[in-house]
């Protein structure tokens, strides 16, 4: 395990939690503990995560039915933007297991009784706003490049995107913009939701602490973002059902990452 160092002056500067510096070994340990939590609570985690593949299928069906195929990939990619908020129940399960408390599925709802539930909801609303901005940006980009072209089938849409200059332009610029949105969300939320659940702090303090955590650990946090992106991609491949495993592991692992980044 990498040695963890406390950043001098961070806590006093924020008048809040103290941020530690971490290494790659800490990311591995957070993932290992996330997997361990999932194996210890598979039934609970599965039923919490089951709504996500179902939601994905519903969204995909709605898209096909309304001939708005250009928004399919932005919706799938945008899932990562609200993931930190959606996983709050998983953080609660990991928190309770860490303390040796009961970990029944019903206990995940205890998050609703948290003193910081208002702050959690407010930050979740901010992520939803960012998601809507991403979708609006993606739609505007598509119309700028393709004009009024409306694909009539998934096959035709994929052919247009993957085999034309306009399609590759859309892919390159769209991914660059998506990366910027993802970086913003990672910076403001990587430890903020677990912190709000764990302590009675304000949204401003939680977001400041998250920003400080990224600033103190740029390399590990970029790597963490890549790990999340790759795992979500793998989860999406089998018709979204892989998320039933990926989401719980990432949710539990995020709690343990928070515990390693933010001092007690």
What labels would you give this structure?
264 residues, mainly alpha, two-stranded antiparallel sheet, 13 helices
Short description:
The chain has 264 residues and is an all-alpha fold.
What does this structure look like?
With 264 residues, the chain is mostly helical. It has one domain (18-261). Helices cover 74% and strands 2% of the residues. The protein has 13 helices and 2 strands. It has helices at 10-14, 24-40, 42-49, 51-65, 72-86, 88-98, 117-146, 154-163, 165-189, 192-198, 203-216, 218-236, 243-261; strands at residues 5-6, 20-21. A two-stranded antiparallel sheet has the order 1-2. α3 packs across α13 (243-261), α6 packs across α13 (243-261) and α11 (203-216) packs across α12 (218-236).
For the record, give the distance between the C-alpha atoms at the N and C termini, rounded to a whole number: 19 Å
Give the count of helical stretches.
Answer: 13
Structure class: mainly alpha
Number of domains: 1
Strand order, largest beta sheet: 1-2
DSSP summary, beta strand count: 2
The whole-number mean of residue pLDDT values reads: 82
Order of helices and strands: EHEHHHHHHHHHHHH
Alpha-carbon Rg, integer: 19 Å
The main β sheet shows up as: 2 strands, antiparallel
What share of residues is helical? over 70%
* Tertiary shape: globular
Beta-strand portion reads under 5%
Catalogue the unreliable spans.
1-14
């Amino acid at each position: 395990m990498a040695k963890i160092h406390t950043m001098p002056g961070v806590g006093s500067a924020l008048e809040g939690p103290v941020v530690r510096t971490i290494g790659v070994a800490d990311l591995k340990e957070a993932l290992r503990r996330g997997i361990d939590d999932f194996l210890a609570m598979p039934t609970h985690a599965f039923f919490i995560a089951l709504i996500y593949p179902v939601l994905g299928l519903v969204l995909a069906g709605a898209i096909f039915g309304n001939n708005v195929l250009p928004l399919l990939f932005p919706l799938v990619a945008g899932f990562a933007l609200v993931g930190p908020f959606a996983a709050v129940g998983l953080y609660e399960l990991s928190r309770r297991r860490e303390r040796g408390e009961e970990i029944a599925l019903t206990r995940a709802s205890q998050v609703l009784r948290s003193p910081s539930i208002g702050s959690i909801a407010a930050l979740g609303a901010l992520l939803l706003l960012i998601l809507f901005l991403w979708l609006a940006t993606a739609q505007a980009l598509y119309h700028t490049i393709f004009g009024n072209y409306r694909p009539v089938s998934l096959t035709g849409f994929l052919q247009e995107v993957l085999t034309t200059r306009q399609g590759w332009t859309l892919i390159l610029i769209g991914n660059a913009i998506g990366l910027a949105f993802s970086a913003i969300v990672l910076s403001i939320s990587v430890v903020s939701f677990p912190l709000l659940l764990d302590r009675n702090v304000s949204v401003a303090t939680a977001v400041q602490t998250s920003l400080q955590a990224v600033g103190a650990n740029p390399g590990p946090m970029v790597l963490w973002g890549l790990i999340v992106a790759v795992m979500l991609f793998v989860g999406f491949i089998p018709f979204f059902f892989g998320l039933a495993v990926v989401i719980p592991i990432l949710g539990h692992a995020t709690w343990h990452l928070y515990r390693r980044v933010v001092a007690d």
